[in-house]
């Protein structure tokens, strides 16, 4: 078995998962090895049905692997009870999905604040407001704090969703097709926003079908045959593409 990496934020060693509930069980992950460090950015490519979202679900502690080992900060959490897994999920991870999952009757600031209520218990109002505004400022939408989601473009809603993921100061960001509902220009700005979080020491795992987004990460992996494989240097640029300015305004009229 592969030796563990003591410097990794998260490390997967030979992780396996079989999907059940159908006529025949289907092995979907057959031995995944992955290490993610502070400030690391990793893109995972793969065809639909290859297991990308299943892998993110395992990493985010929403599901449990059938075999292999999962280390978090060097600690084996492979068989962690659900109650403890939920606490770690809240403390260690931020999640961004293709759908924004914003509550339409709440403002952008209130949507972000929900993550603090769910993840950090009670905070004094002033401290909570400061953390929320800092998160919105970080992704360039602080001026939209009082707007409700129906008044925001798709890109603005996704950046609010990213702020919600960042407000708890997670160690690892997990992004599952976060640009799937956006146009190309807006998608590029959202990926820039995600990548910017790695400059503060956050690890980022981006699942995407888009090669242009994938190549902006420090590493590009492909999930095929149930395992992860490095994408060769011939298929990607040596250096990540320069990021767009995070505070740049999104084009008007981009809906969710």
From TrEMBL:
Highest taxon listed in the record's lineage: Bacteria
Transmembrane segments: none
Signal peptide boundaries: none
GO molecular function list: ATP binding; ATP hydrolysis activity; transmembrane transporter activity
Keyword vocabulary terms for this entry: ATP-binding, Nucleotide-binding, Transport
Residue ranges constituting the ABC transporter domain according to the UniProt record: 10-250
Keyword Chaperone annotated: no
Protein name, UniProt field: Peptide ABC transporter ATP-binding protein
